[in-house]
């Protein structure tokens, strides 16, 4: 007598459970920021903030500029961000959920930048445009998106930039980000790092977005777990991303005469990078980067 009603209730319950599971698999990976590490700040990535701050300081930037670069670097993800010393940056046209998300967060990378400066890689294929065999998402005119960004950020040519971001520093009015500026460099360094962070998903799935599956396309599994710690499959990408960031920062200073001589050699930078990437805990990673940064003051 009550069996049909029980079946309906069971089916209803299973439907809701399945829906919740799907929401968790989809919404969390697409809305979580890398790591969501706090330490008294807005949720952020230890790579994009603490780690990058140390790398650009070691590349030769002053503590003030290193802080501004790192805060801006994180704001590319979170739209606005305030660092430990109160430096505050807000950006437009770069957000992870904006119409320009693929351009800034899933750019393709060539074997070199647009002027022939080589990018670090362990992959057999150094031009990530070649991962995409479907013409619907091939690199425009065969040119990686990062080429237009480095032209703008390092070499002062914004002709091929898809969209020019605007920024507000310390709550001042919004301004267009000038080519070859510190803010342009910070945005480029974020995209450069993301070109490595998202590379495995591009290679295996020809995707430039986050998806619940496979692991390399999932924000929570890849960015929070598999990109850090000894032996995890994403660690090699993390290390090469950091090497590229340090190299680009040093090159920017040489090209634009902004900043000073590097405080580290490439070997010294690589030693720091190796240690950071193999630390599993975000708290320990952040503290390691903070302590190392303080040693450079």
What is the structure about, briefly put?
With 297 residues, this protein is mainly alpha-helical.
Description:
By secondary structure, the chain is mainly alpha-helical. The protein has one domain. The chain contains 11 helices and 4 strands. A 4-stranded antiparallel β-sheet has the order 1-2-3-4. Strand 1 and strand 2 form a beta hairpin. The protein starts with a helix and ends with a helix. The relative contact order is 0.15. Pfam families: DUF6765. InterPro entries: DUF6765 (IPR046653).
Q: Beta-sheet strand percentage?
A: under 5%
Radius of gyration from the alpha-carbon trace, in angstroms? 20 Å
Which segments are poorly predicted (pLDDT under 50) over 5 or more consecutive residues? 7-33
Molecular shape: globular
Number of helices: 11
Q: Helix and strand succession?
A: HHHEEHHEEHHHHHH
Q: Give the fraction of residues assigned to helices.
A: 40-55%
Tally of distinct domains: 1
Task: Give the tally of β-strands.
Answer: 4
Summing up helix and strand content along with how strands pair, one would put the structural category as: mainly alpha
- Which strands sit side by side, in order, in the main sheet? 1-2-3-4
Question: Biggest β-sheet, characterized?
Answer: 4 strands, antiparallel
* Distance from first to last alpha carbon: 78 Å
Please state the average pLDDT score: 90
